[in-house]
Amino acid sequence: MLGNFKNVGAFVRDCNGTTLKYDQACLEIITNEKITFWSQYEVCEDCMLLETKKLSSTGAVVIETESSLRYAIKNANGLICNGTYRFGEFGQYSINVTELTKDECTPRMTAEPDAAYLPILTAAVVLLSMATLWYIIKGIGKRVVAGRFYARYFAREDNELGSETRVLTTEASVPRSPTRSRLRSLDIFRGIAIALMIFVNAGGGGYAVFSHAVWNGLTVADLVFPWFAFTMGEAMVLSLNARLRTSLPRVNALGQVARRSLLLSLIGICLGSVNTNWSYVRFPGVLQRLAAMYLIVGSLECAFMRTSQNIIPGRSLFRDIAAGWQQWLATVLMVAVQLCITLTVAAPGCPVGYSGPGGLHRTATGDFSLQNCTGGIAGYIDRLILGPNHLYQHGTFKSIYRTQLPHDPEGILGILSGVLVVQAGAHAARIMLVYNHARARIMRWVFWSVMFGVVGGLLCKFSEGGYIPVNKNLWSVSYCLVTSSMAFFIQAILYFVVDLKNKWGGRPLYYAGQNALFLYVGSELLKKHFPLHWHLPSPIHAQLLTANAAAALMWLAVAVALHRKRVFITL
């Protein structure tokens, strides 16, 4: 019965002569007749079962373990049995068809799977131990080491120059020149986003939680981009407010915004052109999306930003709204346009309002008309305007749904909904400008976090489906609302801990936030080069996690070095 399994034990990686990779298991099917094994992963929504393997005698099938598997075993007379099961990494399983007494067949475990997520826990413990040890050493150093030696190796400055993360506050009734104080929590938040982005883009240890959701849904990888866009909106408002209050003409400020957007777009296109010819250069991208959203929100701020706040007692509940209602009106109109196009305009040959992955989607219900409907009208617009060769050609959904058409998660239509995230960040900064008391700022951030979260949750029915599913591939409205809700809450927590209570300095993430653009561009250019990338012929999660985490730590070390040299690279 176990003849096809070799070296049965805790670290079995062989399946009938095939070496298992990470996130794979081995299923032995014991039979004395010709059968076919049909399967489909649960993450493939409403997808029909596909023929996976034919067996004329006892044999083994390699199973991917990232999602539960729906399967059926058939012979010449029809269905023998079926079932749904979640297999474990490197686990060994068996189904004896000759002994079945009912239509449902549950695999029997013959060798236990590995604890796939144990390396994450180990890495977290190691990093926390290193951080604790560093603070202990620093504490001892403060008491033992004095003078120049301490100042050189242990001291930290809290008011470094080189970043635009500044806060200007002033009472309308007290005319005085603007004073600058550093919003350290914003740099730390930006550093968290860029560190996670580098780690995720490096591979994320091969874990599904650090990879983008197949279509609908939310993972850690889906959070980092909107969080970074949120911090961009915050920094933009604080920077523009400082410049406009120093009598910079609004037209000049708009010119600076346009210049930065253009440079961001050009850098993004250059990154997309690496190792490819012009016929296949990807036009959309992360930096291009940031540039477009920056240009739109920045233009609104240049037109409507108030450089003096009339603080009137009794209207504190609406002060932040009054300071930015024009910007929000324009943002809501853009989101409404995106929703109207998405829900009422049909792509050729596709249903009205369809925004699914196409391919095998809904084939289990007998609907085979969605093969060429990937992304709905959003995907069609991108392919029509930009051309299919200039879009992202990969994506986790392609292999699952067997789609033929490309779809770019940073497409054109998603810019309109993405503006909502940047505008939310801008509103977080406006709260900082119009409220002088820390308690009022934190309460407003938490209030908007709850509001955004509730509205986003209602749109998706607090699930992966709903009226408007949470979808990073389309930057759906619910996705933008939910991620902005998280960002508001994180900003409130960081402000309380870092800026108000001074309980955490946020290093080295604070330094990464000061040179976030440089770190991102550098990591994208060098992520396939040693020592940032290691060739592992038959990797497991522990090895991948070590390699990818090491790459992120190296870039954090670069951020520390840049800070030491007082080098701050901005556009």
Helix vs. strand class: alpha+beta
Oligomer: single chain
- Please tally the helical runs, counting DSSP H or I stretches of 4 or more residues: 15
Mean pLDDT across the residues is 88
Estimate percent helicity. 40-55%
| Spans where pLDDT lies below 50 across 5 or more residues | 1-10, 155-164, 168-181
Q: Biggest β-sheet, characterized? A: 4 strands, mixed
* Intertermini distance: 65 Å
Radius of gyration: 27 Å
Large-scale geometry: globular
Give me the side-by-side strand order of the main sheet: 6-3-9-10
Give an overview in words:
The protein is an alpha+beta fold and 571 residues long. The chain is built from 15 helices and twelve strands. The strands form four sheets. It has a four-stranded mixed beta sheet, with no helix packed on it. Strands 5-4-7-8 form a four-stranded antiparallel beta sheet, with no helix packed on it. A two-stranded antiparallel ribbon has the order 1-2. A hairpin with a 2-residue loop joins strand 1 and strand 2. 43% of the residues are buried. The N terminus is likely disordered.
